[in-house]
């Protein structure tokens, strides 16, 4: 059904994506280059603060911490921006929704696609950084990149569908999402190597709950990106089931997406009245 929407309303989606990108960089001196400048700036800040002051670069090759941060930060930015903008996808288009009917799933989907457009060249920046830092690339893992992006996109769209329709009925959702996204970032291996959690030097409380860490699908997804450049920092092997955490994340993504879409379709019936 979603693919049918893409085909039937592709002109509308193209217009909405183009509008979103144009508005985002309107009156901006660097325009689309902010897609690259923002993660680069954050990478420098995180490297100085967490890499040198807090010394969270243990277990990584010398000089590789900036690449580690960047290869986690850019996928997280894609997720974060898609969910936050997706939360307001319906409420910010109230006038258009009231004028004409079309599948309203298009609005969260548009936010996802517009951020995906930004993500692709930004990932190219990671590849450049890998060359600059002379970090070897795991080509077998890189070949899985389309699948990793597909899993992340499905997981992200499921959340965006859910929060976008809930935000129409309960405007507190926007503030809750902003708060949760800030906390969620620190539950993902972006500024610290994931191996630190399983180290014998880790805090006893961290060691106690380390096995639950990968119940967080985004921790698995970001670790998959890290695995392209850092074999020892990817998703750890399960003692009994090969690829368990990846299978788990795929199942969570499918269940979340189908559940969110069902709820969206059900609550969508009164959106025109409530909004």
From TrEMBL:
InterPro entries: ABC2_TM, ABC2_TM_bact-type. GO terms for molecular function: ABC-type transporter activity. Belongs to the ABC-2 integral membrane protein family. It is a multi-pass membrane protein. Keywords: Cell inner membrane, Cell membrane, Membrane, Transmembrane, Transmembrane helix, Transport. Residues 30-267 form the ABC transmembrane type-2 domain. Pfam families: ABC2_membrane (PF01061). The keyword Transport applies. One of its GO terms (biological process) is lipopolysaccharide transport. It comes from the Bacteria. It is found in: Cell inner membrane; Cell membrane. The chain crosses the membrane at residues 29-54, 106-132, 144-169, 213-232, 244-264. GO terms for cellular component: plasma membrane. This is Transport permease protein.
């Amino acid at each position: 059904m979603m693919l049918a929407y893409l085909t039937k309303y592709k002109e509308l989606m193209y217009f909405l994506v183009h509008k979103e990108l144009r508005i985002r960089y309107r009156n901006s001196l660097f325009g689309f280059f902010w897609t690259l400048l923002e993660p680069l700036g954050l990478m420098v800040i995180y490297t100085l603060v967490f890499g040198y002051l807090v010394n969270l670069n243990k277990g990584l090759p010398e000089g590789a911490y900036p690449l580690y941060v960047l290869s986690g930060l850019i996928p997280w930015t894609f997720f974060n921006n898609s969910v936050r903008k997706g939360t307001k996808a319906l409420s910010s288009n109230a006038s258009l929704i009231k004028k004409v009917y079309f599948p309203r799933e298009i609005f969260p989907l548009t936010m996802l696609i517009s951020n995906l457009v930004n993500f692709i060249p930004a990932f190219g920046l990671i590849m450049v950084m890998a060359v600059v830092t002379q970090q070897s690339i795991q080509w077998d893992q890189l070949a899985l990149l389309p699948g990793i992006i597909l899993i992340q996109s499905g997981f992200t769209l499921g959340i965006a569908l859910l929060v976008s329709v809930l935000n129409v009925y309960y405007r507190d959702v926007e503030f809750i999402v902003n708060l949760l996204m800030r906390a969620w970032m620190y539950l993902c291996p972006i500024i610290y190597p994931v191996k630190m959690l399983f180290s014998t030097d880790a805090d006893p409380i961290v060691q106690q709950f380390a096995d639950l860490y990968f119940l967080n699908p985004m921790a698995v997804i970001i670790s998959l990106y890290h695995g392209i450049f850092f074999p020892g920092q990817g998703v750890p092997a399960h003692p009994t089931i090969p690829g368990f955490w990846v299978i788990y994340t795929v199942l969570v993504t499918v269940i979340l997406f189908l559940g969110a879409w069902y709820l969206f379709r059900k609550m969508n019936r009164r959106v025109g009245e409530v909004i």
